[in-house]
Amino acid sequence: MSDRSQLISTGKPFQYDKERDAEFERLVKRYPTRESMILPSLWLIQEQEGWVSQEAIAYAADRIGTFASKVYEAATFYTMYHLHPMGENHICICRTLSCWLRGKQEIVDYLETKIGIKPGQISEDGKFSLEEVECLGHCGTAPVVQVNGEFHEDMDVDKLKSLLATLL
Amino acid sequence: MAEKIKLFVNGVEVEVEAKKNLIDAISAVGIEIPHLCYHPALGADGNCRMCLVGIEDGRPPLVPACKTPAREGMKVLLDAEHIKKIQHDVMELELINHPIDCPVCDQAGECKLQDYYMSYDQKESRMTVPQVTKGKKLDFGSGVIHDQERCVVCGRCVRFCRQITKTGELGAINRSDDTRINIFPGRPLNNRYALNVVDLCPVGAMTSSDFRFKQRVWFLKKAPGICHGCAKGCNITIDHNRQKYEDDIIYRFRPLLNKQVNGYFICDEGRLSYKQENDGRLIEARLSTQPRSIDEILTASTKEIDRAEKIVISLSPNCSLEQMITIKALSEKLGATLTGYSEGYIKQDDGDDFLIQDDKSANRAGLQLLEIDNSRDTFTGAIREADLLINFNNNLLLSFAEKEISKLLKGTKVITVTSHDTPFTTMADMAIPVASFSEYAGTVVNSDNILQSFGKAITKNIDLDDISGIAARLGSPLQTPGERFAALQQIISALNGFEPDNIPAEGLKLKESEAANVTA
Question: For A136, which DSSP code?
Answer without folding.
Answer: -
